[in-house]
Amino acid sequence: MPATIVTPQLIKARTNYARTVRGIPDHYLLFLDETGFNLHTTTNNGYSSVNINAYRLFPANRQRNVSLMTFFSTNGVFHHKCLV
Question: CB burial class (10 A; 0-12, 13-18, 19+) of residue 80?
């Protein structure tokens, strides 16, 4: 980080935040993880002769994305939901 961003006030705020979080019992902490992926994407490799451009037409992206959200704690998965 650039030295101009790390100020004494910021260091103090981070220290106070860390002390606050450290005081919370583990069983009260929940973490949210979210990820998304497209089932219609593929990895493609193309080859062409020397001095000839490689090209291929692809249809527009018209399929839906899939999102996965999971709440978990130190004891394991608390809740999960998959949105299609």
Answer: exposed
- Going by C-beta distance under 8 Å and a sequence separation of 6 or more, which residues neighbour residue 63? 38, 39, 40
Structural domains in the chain (count)? 1
User: What pTM was estimated for this model as a whole?
Assistant: 0.51
Q: Could you tell me if residue 46 is inside a domain?
A: yes
Model confidence over 39-59: pLDDT tens digits? Answer: 776 666 666 778 887 776 666
Domain that holds residue 66: 30-83
Residue 35 within a domain:
yes
Two tokens, residue 14: 């981070």
Spatial distance between the Cα atoms of 66 and 36, rounded to a whole number of angstroms: 6
16 within a domain of the structure (yes/no): no
